[in-house]
Amino acid sequence: MKVGLFIPCYIDQFYPQVAIATLQLLEKLGVEVAYPLQQTCCGQPMANSGFASLAKGCDALFTRNFSGYDYIVSPSGSCVLHVKEHLYAAGNEAAATHIRNNIFELSEFLTDVLQVTELEARFPHKVGFHISCHGQRGLHLAQMSELVAEDFSKPGYLLRLVKDIELVELNRKDECCGFGGTFCVSEEAVSVKMGQDRVADHQLNGAEYITGGDVSCLMHLEGILRRKNSPVKVIHMAEILNSSYE
């Protein structure tokens, strides 16, 4: 298979180590990965703010960049969900449809497509996992706690393959962190309080690291942790899955 690596703009600009870890992990697993150099923002910020009509250029560019790949993989659930639900390219709908049907968040690609059963990774720390709302409720990466149904977590399954990791149980495992894209700007006070509650849950249960599949959520939590001078760190799940034995 040939995979196109989609790296959202905020990862490219602020957390390039997440992009590198994603690439290295996929290559370790034998995947042929290509990175389209002309890729830019997928248009999610505009669409979420009610200006989807202004993202048509982003849709057309995304379709041109990622046409021809068997799969598109990204370490960002929210951006993947946006593309799945909103990508439209006038005059190139067949290519856009193929992309919408074959774009995957990293953890679902590893579990559903590659069907990974073991990883050469070690991370000897206590880790709390934050499931993003887009990943859980949009991409169905994990079960929602309010449902009376069988519990599952694709990211959790992968993290448990990592040697020496200790996943801490949270009191409210699928509570929103409060980031919400432009919500954190328009409703700053509410967003901060939600983030503080999310951080407190991890701290109460002894987490040394907070991990997740969306750097946007982790960035929000990291800002709160820094202002609290907390020793707790944030790390994207790809960095843990790609960690070495050394």
Automatic annotation (TrEMBL):
Cysteine-rich domain sequence ranges: 3-83, 127-221
Signal peptide: none
Pfam families hit by this protein: CCG (PF02754)
InterPro entries found in the cross-reference section: Cys_rich_dom
Alphabetized GO MF terms: oxidoreductase activity
PANTHER family named among the record's database cross-references: LACTATE UTILIZATION PROTEIN A, UNCHARACTERIZED PROTEIN YKGE
Protein name: Fe-S oxidoreductase
Organism this protein belongs to: Pontibacter korlensis
